[in-house]
C-alpha cells in the first residue's frame, strides 16, 4: 500500500501563523479572603487546676479513755454543733466525781474547826493563856485547810469535766462521714485516728496554683490600665467539673497566698463557691476559670490567620494598600475562643489573610474579598440567636 505525503495548504499556514503571533492571556491574581481587624474589648480568662476543700473540717476525737457505749448519729447525715455523737461508759467517771465531792466535804469540815480554833487562840494569847507559837500553829492549820478546800473544788471541777467528756459532741455543724469506731470499741485520749469527720460544705473553697510570673504580669497590667477589673477586690471564677460541665454558680476569688512556693514557683489562690445542693465534694479535682479582667482596645485575630514559622514564631499575612501580601511577625498572648489576642505585629485596620491558596508568598498580587467561612459562621450565629 502506497502512503501519500500530506501537504499544508497556504491558507492553513497563514491561519497557524496568525494564531501563533497572538500574545498569551495574563494570569488573574488569586482571590483570597481577608478580614479587617478592629480594636475591641476582650475578657481575659485563665484556667488553672485545683482541688475543692470544705470551709470547715473537724475530726471528732475522744478527750478521755473508755469504751464506746452508744453511737447517736446516722453516717452521712447533717449534724449540729453541740449534738451528742457518741457516749462513753461513764461509771468510772461518776465514781471519780463522787470521790472528789467527798474529799471536798471533808476539807470544808476541817476548815471550819481550824478556823474556830484560830479565833479562840487569838483571844487567849492576849491574857497569856496560850503561847504565841500555839496561835501561829492554829492560824497555819486554818490556812492549810482553806488551801485544801480550794484544791478539792478543783478536783470536783475536773471530775465534772471528765464526766461531761463521756458524751462526745459535734464541734461544728456540717455533714458527718462514716464512723471508724463501733459500739464496744476502746478509745483513748489523744489517739491518732479520729472517730469520724465533720465537714461544712454549704460553701466550699477551691485552691488553685498560678505561676508567680503570670501573677506579676496581671498586676502590672491592672496598674497600667491596659486591663480593667470591676471591683477593687477579687475576681469572678467559674468551675469546670470533672465531667466537663460548667458549675452553674459563679464563685469569687478570695485571696492569694503571701508567699511563693520555692519548689514549684507558684502562688496559691483561693476561691469561694456556694454549694447549696452539695454538688461540690471536698477532694474533687476541678479546673477553675478565672476572669482576670477586661482588656481595652485588644486586637483579636482569627486562629486560621496566625501560623508558625520553622522557628516556632507566630506570623501573619496581611494585604497592603497595593493589594500585595506582606508577612509580619506577631505576638499572640493567649487564645480566646477561636481567636488570638495579638499584642504586637498587628493593628486596627490591617487586612488579615484568613483564606487563600496554599503556599501564598509575600509580595504576591492578590484580589481581596470577604472570607466565606467566617462570614457564613457569623450569619449562622445571628440566625441562631
UniProtKB/TrEMBL annotation:
Residue ranges of the TM segments: none
Domain of life of the organism encoding this protein: Bacteria
Protein localization: Cell envelope
Main location group: other
Cellular component, GO, one term: plasma membrane
PROSITE patterns documented for this protein: PROKAR_LIPOPROTEIN
Residue span(s) of domain Multidrug resistance protein MdtA-like barrel-sandwich hybrid: 57-199
UniProt record, GO biological process: response to antibiotic
Domain Multidrug resistance protein MdtA-like alpha-helical hairpin: 98-166
A GO MF label: transmembrane transporter activity
Limits of the Multidrug resistance protein MdtA-like beta-barrel domain: 204-293
Domain Multidrug resistance protein MdtA-like C-terminal permuted SH3: from-to ranges: 297-356
Pfam families: Beta-barrel_RND, BSH_RND, HH_MFP_RND, RND-MFP_C
InterPro entries: MdtA-like_b-barrel, MdtA-like_BSH, MdtA-like_C, MdtA-like_HH, RND_pump_MFP
Family label: Belongs to the membrane fusion protein (MFP) (TC 8.A.1) family.
Name of this chain's protein: Membrane fusion protein (Multidrug efflux system)
Organism: Sphingobium jiangsuense
